[in-house]
Amino acid sequence: xxxxxxxxxxxxxxxxxxxxxxxxxxxxxxxxxxxxxxxxxxxxxxxxxxxxxxxxxxxxxxxxxxxxxxxxxxxxxxxxxxxxxxxxxxxxxxxxxxxxxxxxxxxxxxxxxxxxxxxxxxxxxxxxxxxxxxxxxxxxxxxxxxxxxxxxxxxxxxxxxxxxxxxxxxxxxxxxxxxxxxxxxxxxxxxxxxxxxxxxxxxxxxx
Length: 207
Description:
Its main location: cytoplasm. This is Holliday junction branch migration complex subunit RuvA. The relative contact order is 0.10. The longest helix is centred in the C-terminal third of the chain and has 20 residues, at about 165-185. The chain has 3 domains: about 5-60, CATH 2.40.50.140; about 65-130, Orthogonal Bundle (DNA polymerase, domain 1), CATH 1.10.150; about 150-205, Helicase, Ruva Protein, domain 3 (Orthogonal Bundle). Strand 2 and strand 3 (about 25-30) form a beta hairpin. The termini are far apart. The chain has a 5-stranded mixed β-barrel with strand order 1-2-3-5-4. The chain has helices spanning about 30-35, 65-75, 80-90, 95-100, 105-110, 115-130, 150-160, 165-185, 195-205, and strands spanning about 5-10, 15-20, 25-30, 45-55, 55-60. By secondary structure, the chain is α+β, with helices and mostly antiparallel strands.
């Protein structure tokens, strides 16, 4: 197993970073909060977890060992794979996650795309005695951004701020893509947070 990766940041994308180690570029899938701490050309050391599938080997990179441990523990819950575990940590930091599970806060857990009420209840039941109690201060959103209403708005806003945009810039971009989310709702579909985040980034880059 690869416990950590240390090298020069060769590039940062919407959901991953490439670290050059010994002339080899390793792609690490990371949350927006982790990506926001990385700058191309600078040195970085990230704890990692390798997910092995029949058709692929994927490295996930983390801000610290606490985030890595939470990622691996989340996957022991029924129905939680690496992508969903990473999504949970993108929205809720490890301590916020522990607080939500300890308080049986279904509403907070269902704010994560891909988690419904039954899924949240299952996670609480299976992990309540394993995640432990919060170790920090009172829970807050992953990026410190106050709730803005609809779950998709929170997720897109948090993702943009996590990537380094200001809260005001992120709010304007969220408003720019609100029509797309509204169209999905009128069609009876849940807004695709990933697609909305990409669309918001495009509007910000054009601006």
